[in-house]
Every structure is written in C-alpha cells, then in structure tokens.
Design goal:
Layout (H helix, E strand, L loop, with lengths): L3 E5 L2 E4 H23 L7 H23 L1 H6 L13 H19 L3 H26 L13 E2 L11 E2 L2 H20 L7 H17 L10 E2 L2 E2 H30 L1
Antiparallel strand pairs: 1-2, 3-4, 5-6
Helix pairs in contact: 1-2, 1-5, 2-4, 5-6, 5-7, 6-7, 7-8
C-alpha cells in the first residue's frame, strides 16, 4: 500500500487525506440529494457537513488524548501533534453532539436530520477506511491466512509481515451499513430509528473487528479495547433510541 499518491512540486497528495476528502464530498452530495427527496431543507446540509466535520475531528482527537493520557502527562508536547492520532468513536460522538447543537441553534428537528445524514456518515467512513489501508494505520494483527496483507513502507503498521486486512473489512462493513440504512430509511416508523440502527450496526461490527486489530496503542479498559468498551454503551444507546422513537411514533399516530 502506498500513501503518497503523487507530488506536484513541493505539494504531495496523500491517499489518506484524499480518501477523507472524497468521503466528505460524497457525504455532502448524497445528503443534499436525499434532503430534497425527504422534503427537508437542503440549504442546511453544507453547514451540517462543516460543523460535523469540525466537531468530529475535535472529538476524535480528544478521545485519542484521553486514551493516551499517561503518555501526554510524561510528554505534554504530544498535545501539539496533529499529524496523526485519531479515534473514530470520538469523531462519531463529536459529530453527533455538534449536529445537535446546530439543530438547537437553527431550531431544526434533530432526529429528522440525524436520520437523513447518518447514511452519509457510514458512506464517508467507508472511504475513510480505504485511506487507512493506504496509510497502513488501523492495521490488524499478524496472520497466516492467505487473505492477509503485507505493508512495506508504512509509518504505522509492522512492515514485511502478513496482517489481517481490518481496514478492508471495516470499509466493506461501512459501505454495507450505508446501503442498509438507505433501504431502511424508507421503511422507518419514526424519526430517530435510522440513526439508532446505525449505532447498533456500527457498534456490533466494531466490537467484533476489534478482536482482529493489532494497534493496541488506542488503549484498553480491562480485557476490552477502548472502542469495545464504548461499543457497549453505543449499542445500548441505539437500542434505547430505537424503542423510544417507535413509542413516540405510535403516540403521534394515535393522536392523529
């Protein structure tokens, strides 16, 4: 895998950044298109993307700092290093909280826009994990499987050994989640259920995939990785949101 795609003079295009940019653009265009289909104001989609990307990056970095707090105490200069070190769950939580704040300011129905945009989040994650593959981060543990992948010039993954292709597995799952959420969005009974389904699907998939990850620098909580520990709470939050949304949907129908 090669992260440096090409260079133009002093400017180098990196695969990880390129895939992140493609994912954000894809999320925006899909979100805007679906907003028009769902009779929601498409003018807000660009602002949502900007707010959520900023909130997501901030949340991702903050969670990385928390999982590496001991290293930071010993070397506070790590707080100024923004070249790497991101945790996806922090990005998800930060993005959701930022979206809630934006909806509160603009007086929008959060759950309606949450359902609208969450498939785009899964789509962006799918492209982002391709970027991880190119960079060699988020790698798997060593394997003798013929399906393993070998890095040769990665800054992050062990080079020259066969590793479980967790980046490919994660990317594939995210793209599958995208199509499932799009399909389900036309069948939901109440606002909030698409977002709830995303939390459930992503959390279960992430919990399982963590057993194949080899980058334990992200921290642990007991016998679980940090992401597995968080997954327990996010899947519970997804189930609660789904049930509560369904009850609210039934109450609205009975009132009508």
């Amino acid at each position: 895998m090669k992260n440096e795609i090409f260079s133009i003079g002093p400017v180098t295009i990196y695969g990880y950044g390129l895939m992140i940019a493609i994912g954000i653009l894809a999320a925006y265009f899909v979100g805007e298109y679906r907003a028009k289909k769902k009779d929601l104001d498409p003018e807000h989609i660009f602002n949502f993307v900007i707010w959520c990307v900023l909130g997501g990056f901030l949340g991702s970095k903050m969670l990385f700092f928390l999982t590496n707090i001991n290293d930071i105490v010993n070397n506070p200069k790590l707080l100024l290093d923004f070249s790497d070190g991101w945790v996806v769950y922090g990005g998800i939580i930060g993005g959701i909280l930022t979206a809630m704040l934006y909806c509160k300011i603009k007086k929008l129905k959060f759950l309606a826009y949450f359902d609208l945009l969450i498939p785009s989040v899964a789509l962006a994650q799918g492209f982002g994990r391709i970027g991880c593959l190119l960079a060699g981060c988020c790698y798997g543990h060593e394997t003798n499987s013929p399906l393993g992948i070998v890095f040769h010039t990665s800054r992050y993954a062990p080079n020259g050994v066969s590793l479980v292709p967790t980046q490919i597995m994660s990317s594939g799952l995210n793209f599958i989640h995208f199509f499932i959420l799009i399909w389900f969005s036309n069948r939901k009974k109440a606002d909030g259920q698409v977002g709830a389904l995303y939390l459930i699907l992503y959390s279960i998939g992430r919990f399982i995939l963590e057993y194949y990850r080899g980058d334990l620098i992200r921290g642990t909580v007991g016998s679980l990785s940090t992401s597995q520990f968080i997954s327990i709470f996010t899947v519970a939050a997804g189930i609660i949101l789904y049930v509560v949304s369904a009850k609210r949907g039934k109450s609205t129908e009975s009132e009508e």
